Amino acid sequence: MSKVTAQTITYIDHSRDDRPLKTTIWYPENLDLDHASTYTGEKHPLVLMSHGSGSNRISLAWLAIPLAREGYIVASPDHYGNTFSEPLPEQFKRYWERPRDLSYLLSQLLQEYNPLIDQEKIYGVGFSLGAYSVMAIAGVNVDQNLIKQQEDETLPTDVVAQMPEFGKLTKKVVEAEPAEIPADLKDERFKKVVALSPALGTGINSTQQTKNVDIPALIIAPGGDEIAPIEQNGRVYHKFLPQASYQELPANVGHFIFLPAKKKYAAADSFWYQDAPGVDRQQIQQETITTVKKFLLS
Q: How far apart (Å, rounded) are the C-alpha atoms in residues 66 and 83?
């Protein structure tokens, strides 16, 4: 098991209004990314991670670091405007930019670190809206009109303000014209994807929307998810992707189980970090690490 190091690089996608992608890369300490062009050793699997809406690139470090210890290169970008530190309302609505971020980032990583990367082992892992992002990369097409029909406009304003999820900010964001949404976000270079607490299942009601998924997928859905309820999300993804590996967590496990485990946090942050009695976030995350490793190796 290797020691892990990390570096942060900002890539700029000039084709999308100079969209910045601040990216942290975790990798085995014995690799030298700065001299990748001269590398002649064993190639490494690559994992691209996609954070939840309103979170950031390091929120999945609890999973990224153990993977890097096993020899993976793991890259996790901040999705511009959809982070805790830099929230731009219109970017919360433009959910399709996130899978495009992953495709752009993959192209940059392959250009810079190609000798290090095993191109038959390129994977995507995402949480919440990030889980949608990797499923879109796999070939799932969600329907914006279906999502709009399902949006809950009855939630109290104070709850809406707290929830970092697409669909709960409808009255505060810029509506996108349907013509702006790419018809297909699938990226054939990805060989497997993992969806943790997937969101936007309300945009799926037909196998026509999942027919292009031809790679293995793992879906892990908390049974007590109140942000992306399992009946409209995890179970919907599985219904229309029955070939996917699917795991439901117990009914007392909530949406944010895949955010970092914190023993101490301010009262205002309890929404994200306080679990139901009897739920051990660190234990569930450790079990998830084991499940993800097994899936990626299978």
A: 24
According to DSSP, the residues that pair with 11 across neighbouring strands are 21
Spatial CA neighbour of 220 closest among 121, 122, 125: 125
The residue count for the chain: 298
- Hey, which bits of the chain come out as E strands? 4-13, 19-28, 44-50, 73-77, 117-127, 192-196, 217-222, 245-249
Closest CA to 228 of 266, 198, 183, 192: 198
Under DSSP, the state recorded for 169 is -
Please provide the distance, in angstroms rounded to a whole number, between the alpha carbons at the two ends of the chain: 19
The DSSP letter of residue 174 is P
Rounded Cα distance between 82 and 169, Å, is 12
- What is the SS3 assignment for 194-262? EEECCCCHHHCCCHHHCCCCCCCEEEEEECCCCCCCCCCCHHHHHHHCCCCEEEEECCCCCHHHHCCCC
Q: What is the pLDDT of residues 157-185, one digit of tens each?
A: 333 344 444 444 444 444 555 556 777 89
Residue type for 89, please? P
The tokens of 37 are what?
Answer: 């062009």
Query: Can you say whether the dihedral through the CA atoms of 52, 53, 57, 58 is positive or negative?
Result: negative
User: pLDDT digit string (tens) for 33-91?
Assistant: 999 999 999 999 999 999 999 899 999 999 999 999 999 999 999 999 998 888 887 78
**CATH class label, 4-297:** alpha beta
- Is the pTM here over 0.85, yes or no? yes
Of residues 155, 140, 147, 144, the one with CA closest to residue 195: 140
